[in-house]
Write a structure and sequence with these properties.
The protein is α/β, with parallel strands linked by helices and 424 residues long. 41% of the residues lie in helices and 16% in strands. The protein has helices spanning 2-18, 33-44, 69-81, 93-113, 125-138, 183-201, 207-213, 224-230, 289-301, 331-349, 358-361, 369-375, 401-421, and strands at 24-29, 51-52, 63-67, 85-90, 143-150, 156-162, 171-176, 215-219, 304-312, 316-319, 354-357, 380-386. The structure holds 2-acetamido-2-deoxy-beta-D-glucopyranose (NAG) (2 copies) and zinc ion. Pfam families: Peptidase_M14, Propep_M14.
Length: 424
Amino acid sequence: MRLYLAVFALLAAVHCEELLNGDQVLRIQAESEDHIQVLKELEKNVDWGLDFWTHGFSIERPVDIRVPDTSLFAFKDFLRDNNITFTVMINNVQELLDRERAEMVMNAEKKYKTKGFNFAAYHNLETIYSFMDSLVASHPDLITKVKIGSTYEDRPMYALKFSTGGEKRPAVWIDAGIHAREWVSHASAVWIADRIALDFKDNRAPVPSILSKMDIFLMIVANPDGYVFSHLTERPIHRLWRKSRSVTSNPKCLGVDLNRNWDAEFSGPGASDDPCGEDYRGPSAQSEIEVKNIADFIMSHGNFKSFMSLHAYSQLLMYPYGFNGTNAPDQPELHEVATQASKALNSWHGTIYKVGSIFHTIEQASGASVDWAYQRGIKYSFAFELRDTGKYGFLLPADQIVSTARETWLALKYIMQYVCEHPY
Ligand SMILES: *[C@@H]1O[C@H](CO)[C@@H](O)[C@H](O)[C@H]1NC(C)=O
Ligand SMILES: *[C@@H]1O[C@H](CO)[C@@H](O)[C@H](O)[C@H]1NC(C)=O
Ligand SMILES: [Zn+2]
């Protein structure tokens, strides 16, 4: 009997790994320091298989955690025993995954029937890369594809360079998808690439004047290995992959959080030293080839004036620092620029963004890219967390891509114009 139960438990465990049926995302609100201490212990609990969708425990903001079906009962009991309030944010993760997959299959079929690119769909790496080639082909005088290196699994890393000429002009860097599962960031960047090209072609302000003085480099997929992995369908859990795919010191756990691996207070608080952690920082600063490639490219260019990174979700527009609560020397100006940019963004659909330093809006994070950029003298460094605020989290329906991209574009445009008008 005991053996039978053990086998049954094993089968159940295997089954649950395959599907996320019944997994819920809970939004948990700490109300006291005691609660925070209790919750911090959770991060160390590996038995429950918790997946943190947002980070940092604080009284000021809730934290979202995906809880596997098998742990749900025990976990909720644990929260209740500790008087910690929570709400169910996503009732069944698998349902959203199924819906997303069905949508992608439908969109793939559509692709053959209609010509032209479907911006209102999530696409795999191959399709995004071929989109880039056709964009370059349609705008050869404006856009070139720059290969800045290869990934751990030997995939090329590309940035689109929008330039009207000149040598090493002041430049703006925009990247998306450094965290693989944040699909709306890649999808928005695709739409934005197209929009930059169209606005230039149609002579729509302020893009032509921005491009008369500055170059724009846009990297749509900053973590290609992770992105490809997040599209593998044999196990639904792959969709929620965040990190790179490199081997670590723990054979059971792959990947480094590419936004904790930069040479900016590397290994400080706000990053994990455990290879199994979602925010594992890696063995050393820039140990990850993807980070090193971007950092080397930015440094060898030497004339970047703005560095922006697109993430999801939470609707935040943030500036340095993440590594601690000290104000950056340019904090008042960065705050003002971010505030105006978020107003521009809001003017489209009324989407509300919160503005502040990374430390004060999300959590302490060391080794983050915008801190690195800022410390290298790139003053206008910002990180975006796009839609939503948690209804769908990483699984934002594809019919929100275009409106997300459109509003984000208004903020990016504001910042680029500001950078253009404030040379330094
Ligand atoms: C939870 O609240 C109840 C009732 O207010 C109280 O008796 C109990 O001690 C609290 N438990 C914890 C762990 O704080
Ligand atoms: C933040 O980090 C900087 C650089 O390491 C340090 O000089 C400063 O004292 C720190 N501030 C706080 C509030 O910890
Ligand atoms: Zn992210």
